[in-house]
Input
Amino acid sequence: MEPAANRRTAVLVSAVLGALVLVTGCGGGGANGGPAEDGGGGYGRGSASPAEIEPGQPEVVATGLEVPWGLVFLPDGSALVSQRDSAGIAHVSGDGTVTDVGTVEEVSPVGEGGLLGLALHPDFPDEPYVYAYHTSESDNRISRMEYDREGGSLGEAEVVLDGIPSSSHHDGGRIAFGPDGLLYVGTGDAGRSRQAQNTDSLAGKILRVTPEGEPAPGNPFDNRVYSYGHRNVQGLAWDEEGNLYATEFGADKLDEVNLVEAGNNYGWPEVEGPGGGDEYVDPLVTWSPEEASPSGAAIAGGSLWVAALRGERLWEVPLTEDGLGEPVAHYQEEYGRLRTVATAPGDDGLWLTTSNRDALGNPVAEDDRVLRVPLE
Output
């Protein structure tokens, strides 16, 4: 890992270059809408410059979903979508056909909890497992189910990891298999902020486990914990070089994008945003909560894309040769709260889900929706 001073210099250079290249009138910029002044940078180089990729006009793929949260693509380009409050998983085809494929067992939706993130086994369909992060009556847990593609149905749930602290808020919930074939899990502090600093607790962490839920070999604390000091992680995405970025909800001051590395301490609750001292890793990008509240994350077309809930916009953060460029906002207040963003097969577009029926939005008749965004 390069010295912190070098990372800080890289981010400042990146911010200047981004400001020269991008038209900031469509959002972002300023102290809270760009790379953090005091840390990060020098990572996440993409093959495309910020000017080469522009998102097109979103088109509606599917309507009438119940708080869609997780989305994973099947080999044929269709998707499975989890619905937080109903505990149901829907199959969404490219032409907009929505079919129920089953309900995850023992889901207890309370507040921000319920049926949350989804992931497919890295060897799918040879290993035909769908993984689901969900809230039970006692904890957050991860179950896996066989998915019958021909019959379009889920099998019985098998719990592979339990004991993740739960609450009516700060439940985390994003799961994804990384380039190493291991399952990464973003958890929240479940309202018990001090647990984020306790490396024996699963709260306020990014976990790394095997497909069977066991601690991954080489984890820094000889348990399931990969990184710590997180408040509420809901976005995970890897660039072409294998760097992991995570989005995190702040409290009252700053939301974050972090570069996540094994064993690092990201500060919560001792610090929110940059400037906490050498023992904590500063975020690469920060926003004020009213312009972000970041949930899902994806990388496509040379940029990191972040779905914003309270901010009601899609953030684009270019991956440049010098680090992360200046964030640009798209579709501000056009579709309401955006929960999940996923890279479509072929890397030529994104799928978004709205979250307007989660008791905090202002739903329209079609909500909640799945949207397709072409990258031009």
